[in-house]
């Protein structure tokens, strides 16, 4: 009988569950699988949603979230962590405290505040709590324009504004920022990666569909790439290309206007670095 093979890289997602299967934990785990990464999860909230909207949200107790994170970190050699929907300031503080003792693990923070369908996914002063408890720990923060505006309490209208906003977010503690420009007008979408290495723009044609779970997928794909050993900029470039492929293959499974990304159809598994 042969011994078990070496385990693949391992990544953890801390986020909410999407009953419609297009975003959140479900999208993250499919993304990890597409990159050949073993996915772990700590669920922060259970949502009742579909392609038409969010009907109900039940946030998990902080103790339950803390226990999930503790259980997986004590057993698995986690190489990267991605956070998504946290919901409340209390849960942001809980997650921040739980991750503070593992500073060597790459952390990608997706500051989820609103669903694609427009429903609020946060309560109270979540933005302030993210800044206080997670930004200083984040290797990468991945806000879209509305999220960056909420975090900074300023308007972002142009690429010049994006540069200033990314610098301001880094000043709050994030080591790097991927500011996604899809909410700004134009036939081209401009995403900005700002890090100690400088600023890099990723420009791609706008796809005329409303994709569900694109932000979750992008952050999860970056986490997966870093878990596989890629540097931040390489992982970001590969993740943006992955989302573009998944969006090009997107389909409409429900009656709503949003489409769901084809994560497994878009997979292009990188070479996995084995110890």
Automatic annotation (TrEMBL):
Pfam family, one: Phos_pyr_kin
Superkingdom: Bacteria
GO CC annotations on file: cytosol
Enzyme class: transferase
Keywords assigned: ATP-binding, Kinase, Nucleotide-binding, Transferase
CDD domains from the UniProt entry: HMPP_kinase
Record carries keyword Transferase: yes
Keyword Nucleotide-binding on entry: yes
SUPFAM superfamilies per record: Ribokinase-like (SSF53613)
One Gene Ontology molecular-function label: ATP binding
Domain (Pyridoxamine kinase/Phosphomethylpyrimidine kinase): residue spans on this chain: 18-258
E.C. numbers: 2.7.1.49
InterPro entries, sorted: HMP/HMP-P_kinase_dom (IPR004399), PM/HMP-P_kinase-1 (IPR013749), Ribokinase-like (IPR029056)
GO biological process: thiamine biosynthetic process; thiamine diphosphate biosynthetic process
Pathway annotation from the record: Cofactor biosynthesis; thiamine diphosphate biosynthesis
Listed name of the protein: hydroxymethylpyrimidine kinase
Organism: Dokdonella immobilis
Upper classification of the organism: Bacteria, Pseudomonadati, Pseudomonadota, Gammaproteobacteria, Lysobacterales
């Amino acid at each position: 009988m042969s011994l078990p093979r070496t385990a693949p890289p391992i990544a953890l997602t801390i986020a909410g569950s999407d009953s419609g299967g297009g975003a959140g934990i479900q999208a993250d785990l499919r993304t990890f699988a597409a990159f050949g990464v073993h996915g772990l999860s700590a669920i922060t909230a259970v949502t009742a949603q579909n392609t038409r909207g969010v009907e109900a949200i039940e946030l998990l107790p902080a103790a339950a979230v803390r226990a999930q994170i503790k259980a997986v970190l004590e057993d698995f050699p986690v190489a990267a962590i991605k956070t998504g929907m946290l919901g409340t300031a209390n849960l942001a503080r809980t997650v921040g405290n739980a991750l503070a003792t593992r500073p060597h693990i790459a952390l990608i923070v997706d500051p989820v505040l609103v669903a694609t369908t427009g429903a609020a996914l946060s309560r109270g002063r979540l933005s302030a709590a993210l800044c206080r408890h997670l930004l200083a720990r984040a290797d990468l923060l991945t806000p879209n324009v509305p999220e960056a505006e909420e975090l900074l309490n300023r308007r972002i209208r142009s690429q010049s504004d994006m540069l200033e906003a990314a610098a301001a977010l880094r000043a709050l503690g994030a080591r790097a920022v991927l500011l996604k420009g899809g909410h700004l007008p134009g036939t081209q979408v401009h995403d900005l990666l700002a890090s100690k290495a400088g600023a890099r723009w990723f420009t791609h044609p706008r796809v005329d569909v409303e994709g569900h779970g694109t932000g979750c997928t992008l952050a999860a794909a970056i986490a997966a790439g870093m878990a596989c050993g890629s540097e931040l900029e390489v992982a970001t470039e590969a993740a943006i290309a992955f989302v573009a492929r998944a969006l090009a293959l997107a389909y409409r499974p429900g009656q709503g206007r949003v489409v769901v990304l084809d994560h497994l159809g878009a997979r292009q598994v990188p070479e996995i670095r084995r110890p």
